[in-house]
């Protein structure tokens, strides 16, 4: 301070102007963010139709109702999830036995999580795997209700399986409870997170998989977990290279298929995911994307030619990925009906598996959902100057450059 007050009083320093500019821009950034709440991910089921406000008054009252609903959901998810804590699962006798079984397996197991609502799709999936050498011996199952568990055990006694019963918890929520379906959806994903955390703590490496995934080629023979020995986690992503609108969703995790190397770091990853899910209204996949921003977690995204989400069907089909997860976006159609429409049925009525249907799967994938492809031509995605400026700012100031925080808000319109 030798110069006293003589320095800044007479002339403006250039650096002062720069600093002021930075502060002003930083202050404005949150307002710019608000306009991007509308970015949505296609991978998720839309549970409710979006309501549009008419006036500012409408908008404000909707916002307050929305915030109240959101707080209620977060609170309820937190409350119901306490009825089956991480410790409850980790120390459950049957689950400990199941974990021991997995530990003894030669290769990391493929874990499918299911319940009565998707048992038909799961049985269909097993028929897909039956004709893929090496796949079925690695398949294990976690059920969220007893009845589906019994049916699977009866039909496939060799598949290691365990039940983590969520029915008693679901029963505590009345049918008419607001956003009940969404809360249960979150509860199921939270339970899956705790199961992953428990297995990681026991040092068990595994693949989490979904029954609505199609195996077009032998995913098993790719030995991906050996191909990336230094990575702790491998994830699938959403999007499609053919559509420019996905370029801003670069690296967004889909979360239907992922590999976890069981160690203390991945255990911590899932414990963080657990607490995050109880404090925010975000899908687990967007939280995983966010957490993966930390490089010590060693997350790796698998290319889409290996695993694609449903976004694959929006593009042309010259190349088929090794695996595709199929989401349904229509409410008036069951998943089974959707699979029927697309010729993805591998199981006869009498319970035997249809080898021909699996062999013809590549063709079925090429022809499936032509209506999605038709949209490709009409879809001229162009970014406004405003939007590009917004991203330029984000890039310069290194604020959520990859939209990982925007992704956290992707479910806000569902409730
Ligand atoms: C099951 O149904 C399929 C197709 O209808 C038929 O080809 C097959 O022989 C049947 N298998 C048994 C064991 O009945």
TrEMBL record:
This protein's name: Nucleotide-diphospho-sugar transferase domain-containing protein
Source organism per UniProt: Caenorhabditis brenneri
Entry-linked InterPro entries: Nucl-diP-sugar_transferase
Keywords recorded for this protein, A-Z: Membrane, Transmembrane, Transmembrane helix
Domain Nucleotide-diphospho-sugar transferase: 135-338
Domain of life: Eukaryota
PANTHER family attached to this UniProt entry: GROUNDHOG (HEDGEHOG-LIKE FAMILY)-RELATED, NUCLEOTIDE-DIPHOSPHO-SUGAR TRANSFERASE DOMAIN-CONTAINING PROTEIN
Membrane-spanning residues: 12-37
Lyase as UniProt keyword: no
């Amino acid at each position: 301070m030798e110069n006293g007050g003589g320095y800044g009083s007479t002339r403006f320093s250039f650096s002062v102007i720069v600093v002021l500019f930075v502060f002003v821009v930083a202050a404005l950034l949150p307002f710019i963010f608000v306009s991007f709440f509308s970015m949505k991910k296609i991978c998720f089921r839309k549970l409710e139709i979006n309501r549009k406000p008419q006036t500012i008054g409408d908008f404000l009252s909707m916002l307050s109702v929305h915030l109240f609903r959101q707080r209620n959901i977060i609170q309820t998810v937190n409350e119901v999830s306490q009825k089956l804590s991480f410790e409850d699962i980790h120390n459950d006798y049957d689950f400990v036995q199941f974990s021991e079984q997995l530990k003894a397996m030669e290769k990391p197991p493929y874990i499918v999580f299911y319940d009565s609502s998707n048992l038909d799709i799961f049985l269909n999936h097993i028929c897909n795997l039956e004709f893929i050498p090496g796949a079925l011996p690695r398949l294990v199952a976690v059920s969220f209700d007893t009845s589906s568990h019994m049916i699977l055990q009866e039909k496939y006694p060799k598949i290691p399986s365990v039940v983590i019963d969520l029915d008693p918890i679901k029963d505590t929520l009345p049918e008419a409870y607001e956003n009940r379906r969404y809360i249960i959806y979150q509860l199921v994903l939270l339970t899956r997170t705790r199961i992953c955390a428990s297995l990681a703590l026991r040092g068990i490496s595994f693949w989490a998989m979904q029954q609505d995934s199609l195996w077009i080629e032998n995913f098993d023979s790719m030995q991906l977990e050996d191909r990336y020995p230094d990575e702790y986690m491998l994830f699938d992503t959403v999007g499609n290279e053919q559509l420019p609108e996905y370029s801003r969703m670069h690296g967004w995790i889909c979360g239907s298929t992922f590999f976890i190397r069981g160690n203390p770091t991945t255990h911590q990853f899932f414990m963080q995911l657990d607490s995050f899910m109880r404090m925010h209204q975000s899908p687990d996949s967007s939280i995983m994307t966010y957490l993966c921003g930390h490089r010590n977690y060693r997350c790796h995204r698998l290319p889409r030619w290996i695993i694609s989400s449903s976004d694959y069907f929006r593009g042309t089909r010259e190349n088929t990925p090794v695996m595709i997860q199929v989401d349904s976006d229509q409410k008036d159609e069951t998943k089974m009906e959707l699979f029927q429409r697309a010729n993805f049925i591998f199981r006869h009525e009498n319970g035997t598996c249809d080898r021909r249907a699996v062999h013809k799967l590549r063709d079925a994938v090429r022809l499936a959902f032509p209506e999605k492809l038709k949209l490709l031509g009409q879809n001229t995605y162009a970014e406004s100057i405003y939007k590009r400026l917004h991203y330029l700012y984000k890039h310069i100031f290194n604020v959520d450059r990859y939209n990982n925080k925007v992704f956290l808000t992707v479910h806000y319109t569902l409730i």
